[in-house]
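User: I'm new to structure prediction. If I give you an amino acid sequence, what do you actually give back? Let's try with this one:
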Amino acid sequence: MRTEEKLVAAGVRAGSEIIVPSFATAEAAVAVRNVGAFPVFADIDPATFCLDPAAVAGALTSRTAAVVPVPLFGHPAADLSALRQVASGRALPVVEHSEPAPASPDIARRRSHAAYLDAHLSGVVTPTASPGAEHRYDSYVVRVLGNGRPDRDAFARALRARGVRCHVPVQTPVHRLPSFVRRTRVPWLPETERAADECLALPIDEVSSLRELQRLVSACNALGGLLPTAA
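Assistant: Good question. You get back a string of structure tokens that encode the predicted 3D arrangement of the chain. For your 231 residues, that looks like this:
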């Protein structure tokens, strides 16, 4: 069922406010607008990149009609039990938005590659899964520490020069896209902004052998001296 249909089935009416993440694709926010409601953007958990229940609680108003968590990079959509607890005091529905899975079905291989990178990368912050969450690693997204976007972009250029096809997973948070700035109140979302400046997706789906993983690690770690190592 599409997110618009889920919202209508949950009783969302035109003019309502629906809480969504900004560090994601625009699809969930567009779905909210398609039913005549207004997206209200809440901040993310810095570890999982998904909606932070505490930020959701702070974004509630008398017009809030639902919360729409979004799975990201293969991590399930936020801490659903905590979100439902926040929403339960107001009897708000939690309507999960479903993102299409990538074409590659080999989740076990992606998880194996992710585990190798977790153990061997230095100088970047590797992905974190919530306890009990089954991360698909549709994208392997690290944080490049340092001076935000300038250092992340320099790191990406250096990796590409070494033959590593990396990319920035969220170029612009949804709340800063022109079509949403004009129609919604623009919040200050510090964790969202920081993630947009620091995150970089590494190409684990393109890697098919241990030797290629080792080359990827070597390319990244060779740049580690330019950046502070994660604590």
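You can read the tokens as a compact description of the fold. Here is one thing that stands out. Confidence is low (pLDDT under 50) at residues 225-231.
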